[in-house]
Amino acid sequence: MTLAAWGQLALFIALVLLTTKPLGAFMHRVFETDRRPLPRVLGPLERFLFRLSGVDPSQEQTWVRYTGSLLIFSLFSLLVTYAILRLQHLLPLNPQKFGAVDPALAFNTSASFTTNTNWQAYTGEATMSYLSQMAGLAWHNFISAAAGIAVAIALARGLTRRRPPDAPRTLGNFWADVIRSTVYVLLPLSLVFGLVLVSQGVIQNLSAYREVTTVEGAKQVVALGPVASQEAIKELGTNGGGFFNVNSAHPFENPSPFTNLVELWLIFAIPAGLTYTYGRMARDSRQGWAILAAMAVLFLGGALVAHWAEAKPNQGLASLVLDHRAGNMEGKEVRFGTAASALFATVTTDASCGAVNSMHDSFNPLGGLVPLVNIQLGEVIFGGVGAGLYGMLIFVVLSVFIAGLMVGRTPEYLGKKIESREMKLAMLYVLIFPLIILGFTAWASVTQWGTSSLNNAGPHGLSEILYAFTSGTGNNGSAFAGLNANTPWYTTLLGLAMLTGRFLMIIPALGIAGSMVGKKVVPPGPGTFPTNGPLFTFLLVSVVLIVGALTFFPALSLGPIVEHFAGLAGKVY
Quick check: pTM over 0.90? Predict the structure, then answer.
């Protein structure tokens, strides 16, 4: 790595670490205290929304009611978005007169944004009206992120609350958590950083597209729109859906290395901060730091491998007499280069964001392997807002159970015993993910519906299919774009993958919260395994890697790994 690449990586890590504690403490005040920040500014808006929606925040819910509220809210949001997309040709703020979105694509897009996936099988600037972008998609950027935060907070309450045995087994109020996530966290930060992005050249308007004359004398239509307001929440909420088809590679979304750094920080800010929030809820901040350390180790490993792979020449061009010192610049913007592109690919797939500033399909095989593995590890390396924390907490439960087996005693976490019910739910959470990914990938690989959309044969074609279902099920949204996923078969199947990958994993997570919240807390004894130190961090990282490797290594061996060795032998796909 060059000195500039090391400096960029160090600066990014420093920014994340410097803001983890203050942002985490801020969110702890929002969700777990009555002294919420900015009460004179944001308090009236919170109370207004409670009155408008008829929510009594003091009425807490059991895990069943909490889950039911989440599912009903998500279904309603999906249907509203579907209606907006199907009727956009009849609605205002459509200066380019785009027609209705076809039913399969409307379902796919509605499912995508409802689940915080933001997978896009369409070209944004050529398909969606301004109203669809703002009222349909940007709305979901807020509420799907808020729902993820709410689930994480609910699971954290289940693990950390200490209550008498006869106290109600409640986890908070879903509606209150969503409203507070939006009012106190997502809206203010999006407003501030939207203005920051505007100051750096990200566009924000409602103008019609303009036709301009290029330097060659040709005519070109330049797409415009309310970009900055959606760019901020796109990254902050780990949504990733781009206003433009090329996402954050577009200069109207991400014009400079400075905005690139800001967007990278926005992606990690809330997932990192939530680890400190969790530590405060556990009454031991070291619990949160141990989880953050595990995430950081996994992130750093992926970032280094991705940059190493992309600093090498493109395998298809390596034999040509070219200057390869810049590395693999295929599919990358010159203003970012290989270092910033590899870092962005690592961050966006670590955090379930899916925004891209380069084309992952053009990465060298091992460079493309990193974002694929990041998602397949369960989107727990920081992960989506909320989703990363509750996913990692499932692995914490697994790690504690394994530690208990090693020392021959009933496993405990934060003084609460981990028993068969919790382990069954944890294993259900772990097994659902690969079942959907590998099952749908296998189906697509042997049917005409699946293979007819490929632009590449051999292992790279398999990687494209595997990446699509990994990204959809993992609620990431990035893609190996060589696959044409805008077909009725793919849009329907990927829509189902996104919905099942989101909600069939949230249900067992909340089930664990409901099971743990009422358990008696016992004081630590001589055989209690400490979960707030380096040894536990090492065990947690090992469990995440082992589970991921045992599940996906065979599929990866047939895709990017064999493609890498084929490239060394002179066969490029």
Answer: yes
